[in-house]
């Protein structure tokens, strides 16, 4: 995969710090705003990116780029992803994918028309621990209660209280606890249990922003409570509770660093099947394979999952 990156924010820095661990990935180009040109050039020097641009159109027109990683503020995902597809590039679009189901379907149509692939960059459903948890659920089923918690006191929260609204808190730019953190919980719940029959979101609002909130997802046979907070501190623990036992794990639902399977019969065992020490490596290993082989079936499977997650997000915001 010959990658062009659009954006230079924290997620790009995070990705580039481990990009050299992704086999068959070539860092061809990065495009930033003119204001961030120095940042782009610094990243290029530090991580061996071959070309820098301050005009996305130039990156999209670069014949050496076959895939574009869209890592811009959430509100810009749709327009940047669409422009890349129109230039016959595959697209990896950061979470949350786009704002509406209609936008997602339009991107998929453009991708199909141009015989290109589009996928959402979301870490947890590509992790090995997620895949093993999905298999382990059968051993404690039927499942009745799910509680997923991603609480992370934001490094920008104090500034937010003082009136400085960073993009991760700006609802006009797709910010807030639901979009920034609970998105991981939603991906996990939908991946493990499918679409819910009912969705309800209750948020703590400050300055018009959901700085924390609880999303309830109802199923015919279970209830799921998804907690996300940027304004509180805790060491979060998440639970999947069934009649024969419980699966639980600590920390971010985006990293799934390990999990414990505790059976009603008394046995308890901690597991960690994750292959890499950074949450973003597994997803990009998957993306390289899909793009290089043009695996339409797998990309479509991932897109359908993204669509179901987006339907939950839209219902939560209603």
TrEMBL record:
Instruction: Report a single Gene Ontology molecular function.
Output: nucleotide binding
Q: Which InterPro entries match?
A: Gfo/Idh/MocA-like_OxRdtase_N, GFO_IDH_MocA-like_dom, NAD(P)-bd_dom_sf
Show where the Gfo/Idh/MocA-like oxidoreductase N-terminal domain sits.
2-118
Domain (GFO/IDH/MocA-like oxidoreductase) ranges: 157-247
A Pfam family matched in the record: GFO_IDH_MocA_C3
PANTHER family given for it? PTHR43054, SCYLLO-INOSITOL 2-DEHYDROGENASE (NADP(+)) IOLU
Task: Output this protein's name.
Answer: Dehydrogenase
Species of the source: Lactobacillus gigeriorum DSM 23908 = CRBIP 24.85
